């Protein structure tokens, strides 16, 4: 099926397979269509269907406007039923030839481990290797559950079939409730990716700042893994602020301490506890980490005061926390928005 995109600056054409979303068809063809979550929750890929028919893959997608007209669609949630013409208000370009293009792969859950009462780590073995950039995410679909969910990749491995992901239990969340209810090892899944623009670019030679809340730390772990592989903190600095409500909610502390030790003084890691005080015993248990009480974005802004020159910041976590960190870095820290990266998940 031929898809024609009429954007602000130029026209693009690409092919789409039956059942394939318009977004994935375009991205895999090298057309840089607009998106953020790519899973139907944010509405960033909203477009107008000018001609043709589409199948709505998730009619209840929260990214749809309540007042949307019949011809307003989400590119990530619509598959063509024939040739289509799509209108976009944004400018759209072709991706660079060396950019990694997303694709769809089948996989199997090979490990499932509870890290806290509501966060689990899991690994997926893909049937074919996937290259990705540190900080990217994938979309995951499970038989019997409508729609795809976005998960940041924890590990950083080139030409690997192994993906490590984090999942947070959300009351009423179809996929998370199903996965936390039983052992999912052996479950078949479909993975689309890699996706996301909040990626680590070593060539920029910037000092790194990572501010993450809860399971949002997943993508930061991939960034730190790549930085460690490059010995990036030999002549650059890094600061990680990982926020949770209580010590009961902490995880990855040993791994974060390992990153700090490997950086030989170039990387500071601070665990921010918002709802309780931090005991001295905890601080002694993890000598490579610092512990502070307070909201993660507030602690980060205080600790980074006067240290934001030549910095690139990565933000992740619940949308209110990401928004608060963004405002603080721009208004209080005077950091340019061009030096702040995040992917929008709702």
Description:
The chain is α/β, with parallel strands linked by helices. 19% of the residues lie in helices and 33% in strands. The strands form 4 sheets. The protein has a 6-stranded antiparallel sheet. The chain has a 6-stranded parallel sheet with strand order 17-16-15-14-18-19, with helices on both faces. A 5-stranded mixed sheet has the order 2-1-7-3-5, covered by helices on one side. Helix 6 (296-303) runs parallel beside helix 7 (319-332).
Summarize this entry quickly.
This is Methanesulfonate monooxygenase reductase component. The chain has 346 residues and is α/β, with parallel strands linked by helices.
Mean pLDDT: 93
CATH superfamily of the largest domain: Nucleotide-binding domain of ferredoxin-NADP reductase (FNR) module
CATH topology of the largest domain: Rossmann fold
Q: Helical stretch count?
A: 7
- CATH architecture verdict of the largest domain: 3-Layer(aba) Sandwich
Largest sheet: 6 strands, antiparallel
Shape: globular
Radius of gyration: 21 Å
Helix/strand/pairing class, anyone?
Answer: alpha/beta
Helical content stands at 10-25%
> In CATH's first tier, which class of the largest domain applies?
Alpha Beta
What is the domain tally?
3
**Beta-strand percentage?**
25-35%
Cα(first) to Cα(last) distance is: 31 Å
Low-pLDDT parts are none
- The largest sheet has its strands arranged as 11-10-13-8-9-12
The succession of helices and strands, N to C, reads EEHEEEEEEEEEEHEEHEHEHEHEHE
Give the total of beta strands: 19
Organism: Cupriavidus phytorum
Domain FAD-binding FR-type: 102-201
Pfam families: FAD_binding_6, Fer2, NAD_binding_1
Keywords: 2Fe-2S, Iron, Iron-sulfur, Metal-binding, Monooxygenase, Oxidoreductase
């Amino acid at each position: 099926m031929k898809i024609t995109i009429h954007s602000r600056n130029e026209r693009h054409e690409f092919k789409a397979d039956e059942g394939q979303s318009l977004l994935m068809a375009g991205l895999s063809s090298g057309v840089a269509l607009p998106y953020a979550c790519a899973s139907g929750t944010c509405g960033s890929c909203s477009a107008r269907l000018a001609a043709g028919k589409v199948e709505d893959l998730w009619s209840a997608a929260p990214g749809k406007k309540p007042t949307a007209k019949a011809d307003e669609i989400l590119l990530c949630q619509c598959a063509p039923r024939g040739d289509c013409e799509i209108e976009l208000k944004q400018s759209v370009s072709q991706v660079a030839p060396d950019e990694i293009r997303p694709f769809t792969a089948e996989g199997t859950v090979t490990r499932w481990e509870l890290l806290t009462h509501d966060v689990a780590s899991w690994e997926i073995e893909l049937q074919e290797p996937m290259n990705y950039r540190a900080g990217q995410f994938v979309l995951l679909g499970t038989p019997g559950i409508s729609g795809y969910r976005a998960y940041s990749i924890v590990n950083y491995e080139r030409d690997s079939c192994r993906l490590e992901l984090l999942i947070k239990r959300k009351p009423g969340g179809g996929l998370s409730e199903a996965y936390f209810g039983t052992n999912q090892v052996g479950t078949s899944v479909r993975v689309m990716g890699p996706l996301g623009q909040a990626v680590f670019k070593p060539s920029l030679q910037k000092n790194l700042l990572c501010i993450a809340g809860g399971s949002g730390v997943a993508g930061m772990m991939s960034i730190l893994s790549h930085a460690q592989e490059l010995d990036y903190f030999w002549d650059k600095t890094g600061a990680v602020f990982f926020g949770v409500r209580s010590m009961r909610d902490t995880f990855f502390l040993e791994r974060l301490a390992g990153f700090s030790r490997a950086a030989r003084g170039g990387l500071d890691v601070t665990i921010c506890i918002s709802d309780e005080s931090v005991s001295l015993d905890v601080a002694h248990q993890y000598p490579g980490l610092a512990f502070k009480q307070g909201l993660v974005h507030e602690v980060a802004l205080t600790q980074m005061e006067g240290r934001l020159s030549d910095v690139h910041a990565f933000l992740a976590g619940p949308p209110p926390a990401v928004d608060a960190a963004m405002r603080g870095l721009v208004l209080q820290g005077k950091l340019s928005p061009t030096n702040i990266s995040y992917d929008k998940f709702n």
